[in-house]
């Protein structure tokens, strides 16, 4: 095991990553379904493929795509290059949405219907369903049929078919029968400005799906549509909540003010930066 670890470490080190030891440990940990992080042996039958995986990592392929697995909020999700790799900051969106739903049910607002736009591998809807009881139903969609296929596998993987339904289509197109009856809309949209994409590492732009990254000229193209079109889906008092990029809170607040059909715009922090915004339909 030691020799294989060293061989993998050397391959990853040659790729020029900033912390090859951490990357190698992450690789072994993911391959072993988290046994390293639990303080157990990382050796299992898949270790025979470790050098091949390390070689792919050397070529810049994200580790999650090499293994087909990404970790989010303590769960392992099937993940391919048809879906974005879940990131830690998105847990703020899930936890905030969960808290709001719990409070709405506690306040006597009854069963909650949630729509997620741009579900990717399904990590947001599945994690949210795990934090909520049966009074919350979630309909999740993605414009990519390939992404929806991965999300369906994850829904089955976690046994939440009765709580999370999946659809394919652009924004709210899959939900013609849910106008004015939705309690919450959740979204982690593409928010990187088109001109900033070239500044990202090749590991991201060469492998992750561009449709889930490119937010248009100012990074807010989908935000405009989301804010304007959510009005037709939400109940009066329904809530729109979504993740934003760093430093976008002022632009997003201006979009809400321009729309004039929302109230109680709130900002939520991740590591002292605004990363989630919510607003209520008047």
**Structurally, how many domains make up the residues?**
2
Which CATH architecture of the largest domain is right? 3-Layer(aba) Sandwich
Low-confidence stretches: 39-45
Binned, the helix content reads 25-40%
Percentage beta strand? 15-25%
Global Rg: 20 Å
For the termini, the CA-CA separation is 61 Å
Question: Please, what is the average pLDDT?
Answer: 85
Name of the CATH first level of the largest domain: Alpha Beta
Written description of the protein model:
The chain is α/β, with parallel strands linked by helices and 282 residues long. It has 2 domains: 2-59, no CATH class; 90-281, Rossmann fold (3-Layer(aba) Sandwich). The chain is 37% helix and 21% strand. The chain contains 10 helices and 9 strands. The chain has helices spanning 2-14, 20-31, 50-58, 63-67, 90-106, 123-131, 145-157, 202-205, 221-230, 249-259, and strands spanning 69-72, 75-78, 112-117, 136-142, 164-168, 182-187, 234-243, 262-270, 273-281. Strands 5-4-3-6-7-9-8 form a 7-stranded mixed beta sheet, with helices on both faces. Helix 1 (2-14) crosses helix 2, helix 5 (90-106) packs parallel to helix 6 (123-131) and helix 9 runs parallel beside helix 10 (249-259). It is globular, with a radius of gyration of 20 Å. The termini are far apart. The model is unreliable at 39-45 (pLDDT under 50).
């Amino acid at each position: 095991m030691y020799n294989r670890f060293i061989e993998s470490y050397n391959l990853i080190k040659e790729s020029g990553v900033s912390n090859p030891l951490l990357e190698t440990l992450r690789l072994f940990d993911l391959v072993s379904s988290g046994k390293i992080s639990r303080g157990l042996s990382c050796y299992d039958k898949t270790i025979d493929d470790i050098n091949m995986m390390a070689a792919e990592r050397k070529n810049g392929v994200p580790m999650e795509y090499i293994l087909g697995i990404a970790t989010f909020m303590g769960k392992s999700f099937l993940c391919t290059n048809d879906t974005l790799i879940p990131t830690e900051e998105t847990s703020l969106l899930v936890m905030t949405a969960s808290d709001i739903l719990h409070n709405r049910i506690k306040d006597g607002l009854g069963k909650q219907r949630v729509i997620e736009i741009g579900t990717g591998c399904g990590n947001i809807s599945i994690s949210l369903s795990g934090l909520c009881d049966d009074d919350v139903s979630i309909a999740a969609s993605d414009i990519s049929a390939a992404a929806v296929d991965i999300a369906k596998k994850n829904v089955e993987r976690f046994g939440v078919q009765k709580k999370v339904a999946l659809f394919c289509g652009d924004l709210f197109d899959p939900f013609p029968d849910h106008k004015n009856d939705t309690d919450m809309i959740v979204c982690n949209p593409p928010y990187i400005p088109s001109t900033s994409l070239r500044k990202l590492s090749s590991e991201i732009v060469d492998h992750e799906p561009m449709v889930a990254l490119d937010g248009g000229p100012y990074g807010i193209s989908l935000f405009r549509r989301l804010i304007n079109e959510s009005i037709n889906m939400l109940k009066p008092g329904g809530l729109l909540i979504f993740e934003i990029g760093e430093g976008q809170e002022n632009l997003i607040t201006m979009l809400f003010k321009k729309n004039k059909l929302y109230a109680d715009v709130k900002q939520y922090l991740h590591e002292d930066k605004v990363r989630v915004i919510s607003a209520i339909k008047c």
